Amino acid sequence: MESGIDLSGMRTVHIRASVIGVVPLLWLGVVGGPVEEEVPTLRMTGVHVTCMDSPVNLTWRDPELVSLRPTQRAPGSRGSMTLTQPISPFGVTVNPVGNHVYNVTVQVDRLRRRQGAVYVVWAAMPELDEYIQLGALGESNTLTAPLAWNKFMVFVSEEANVEVERWEGPILLTGLSPSGRMHTMAGHGPFEDVSCQQYY
Amino acid sequence: MQMMLPGLMGAVPLLTPFLPGSNLNPEDLPDAVFREIVEMENGDTLRLEAGFVRRTIGTRTFTMYGFNGQYPGPLIRVAQGAEIVVHFTNHIDLPTAVHWHGVRLDNEFDGVPGVTQDPVQPGESFMYRVRFIDAGLYWYHPHHREDIQQDLGLYGNIMVDSPDPDYLGPVNGEDFLVLDDLLIDDAGILPYGLEGAVQTLMGRFGNQLLVNGEPRWEETVHRGEVRRLYLTNVANTRTFNLVLEGVQLKLLGADVSKFERESFVENVILAPAQRYLVDAHFDKPGTYVLTNSIQAIDHFNAVFYPQVDTVGVITVLDEPVDENHANTFEELRENGDVIADIDQFRSEFARPVDHELELVVRAVDMPSSMLAVMALDTLYYPPIEWNDAMPMMNYLSTSRNLTWVLRDPQTGLENRDTQWRFTVGDVAKIRITNQRRGFHPMQHPIHIHGQRFLVISKDGVPSNNLAWKDTVVIPVGSTFDILLEASNPGRWMAHCHIAEHLEAGMSMVFTVEDP
Q1: Is A183 at the interface with chain B, CB within 8 A?
Q2: Is the Cβ pair A92, B384 closer than 8 Å?
Q3: B504 occurs within a structural domain
């Protein structure tokens, strides 16, 4: 039997909050979302919720395009990461373990190139237990490489050469895959006092 | 952890729970039997009856439906060009009809209540005349409350064989695999909605995966065998990612034709209603498992996690096969007949877009607390929802408080109000965009009745290996261009083949007129 569905509560009148998505409502209090609008926004009243106090605009944005943020080692730089899917006879490109297969395009602007340095793009799982070098930025500060992960970080490091197996130089820009916007319910309320800003 | 939700405490779907046959004693029902293969000649008549059966799945017994008392329904095997008569009788407790999915038959026999016929009431009959002009793998199912009727077992395959003995390469054997799932708990099958569908948000994901109506498909083959797998997804909403680890797979064909070129693949992705033809080469003895391998979503921790469900086991004997087709298996054929057929349409690939469709969802009367939680999740949607990651919220969505929409942005008309007209011989480029905007976008397998089409591009990237299709899955955020050949006159339906999305409005009707 497939293990992914919790049926508890479906035959009873009470809703059990073992369902993940309903938990934040304990702290949201009276909330209301637009019913007929295509772009949802949240309107909160009277309840302290960490993510609502942050300046993050919780409205829809292009999930396939994320910004790369500069670190203190690369002030003024900026970048973006775009995901596209290669063509597939099935219409959706997924590998045998179920990960979506993407072409990751990283574009960096205003990068102060140091003579002799190469700028290497890395992808890593959020826990940093796996990482992979995607390649070095070209002359146009762009790189496109395939990647079959669902949720990952991307960052750019300055290296002496592209042969490094792991980043050794300073990290200049970082970003999280679009799926990083998937809102963790564990990061709010009694669990942790974490602003959801960190997810952007 | 167990918490009550103030905003939703006590909430249940605002529809009457309904489970067909709940008033029947299963002991009084006939045991369902495994499907028969019915070889039919041109002009033959098939008597097809929908009725109650007693189904045993694993160690448990359920009251379900069956065509001719079988699970799946009889496998109809006919030659390309044949026409058969199907004398259908409805012995279930709901009105119904039989739709011949993907078959370019005469409009009046398409089996869509309210469009091509009146529903067949309990105890009544209807005669279908079904002609098969395209070789390929098709299926039949009800088109009236299919969220219930199809889910409870009313489906069967049709294999239309080409007269060309070399149409497909040689194999040692064939297996027809019908993929499905069923939602059950300790008390049995979970109820449906009487007045309309429940679980309209994401569709009804089952927790028991089924192949040919059984929890596990088993097959024994000889070493070196090449077997042809005919795959059909009849699930209400589940998209499968099938993997046969350690076995080389060759992709041959899709819904309505072969591909232009065969290709080796590692896995096969099937959205509801889609079919694929695959050859598998078992060159080493041992045991191989067929799995559905997905990355499910845990919303609470905002993580993906692997979920692998074994749906089949193939034992490869050490004894070698008599006739070895390994060499031909290794060849990837280019199908000149398909290429020549598509060549007639290739100049149309660059034509301007004739029609557009946007796929969106609209809440009508959902609890505001639910909407708020879902708005939090609006920041990211996976291209494909492989699992029901929010089953309770899904459970509370119904065809009354949620509307799925096919929207024509050129006219602003939606669903049944759209008015597309074609003339036989027309070729139309249709651009379908699955809008990310919305409180819960989801992939949609879009099925167009009575015609065939080519998927010519995805997100602006041209397809490089085409096959004629009748169902295309549109992932969230994607735009597909399809080229429709309007070849078959009549009033036809196009719709999302997630059964609950269809029940929640996601259908339109278009007309193809005689010249």
Answers
A1: yes
A2: yes
A3: yes
So what's the pLDDT on residue B138? 98
**Domain of residue B204, residue span:** 173-335
Contact criterion met (CB < 8 Å) for A25 and B185: no
**Torsion on CA atoms B15, A35, B199, A91, rounded to nearest 10:** 150
Least CB–CB distance from A6: residue in B5, B391, B467: B391
User: In terms of domains, do B359 and B320 share one?
Assistant: no
Residues B395 and B500 in one domain: yes
Please tell me the pTM assigned to this model.
0.90
B391–A7 CB contact, under 8 Å: yes
Chain A CB contacts of B6 under 8 Å are 25-26
Domain assignment present for residue A72? The answer is yes
Query: Domain count of chain B?
Result: 3
On the question of pLDDT at A62 being above 60, the answer is no
Average pLDDT over chain A, rounded to an integer? 71
C-alpha closest to that of B259 among B111, B20, B465, B428: B465
User: What is the residue range of A84's domain?
Assistant: 65-180
Cβ-Cβ contacts under 8 Å, B209 against chain A: 1-2
Answer yes or no: do B59 and B184 share one domain: no
Contact B188/A at CB under 8 A: no
Q: Inform me whether the pLDDT recorded for A36 exceeds 90.
A: no
d(CA A60, CA A45): 21
Least confidently predicted of A34-43, A82-91, B258-267, B418-427 = A34-43
Instruction: Give a three-class secondary structure readout of B129-154.
Output: EEECCCCEEEEEEECCCHHHHCCCCC
Cα–Cα dist A179/A177, whole Å = 5
Residues of B in contact with A125 (CB under 8 A): none
Site from A3, A5, A64 to mutate, B interface, most B CB atoms within 10 angstroms: A5
Q: CATH number of the domain at A116, please.
A: 2.60.40
- In this prediction, residue B168 has a pLDDT band, given cuts at 50, 70 and 90, of very high
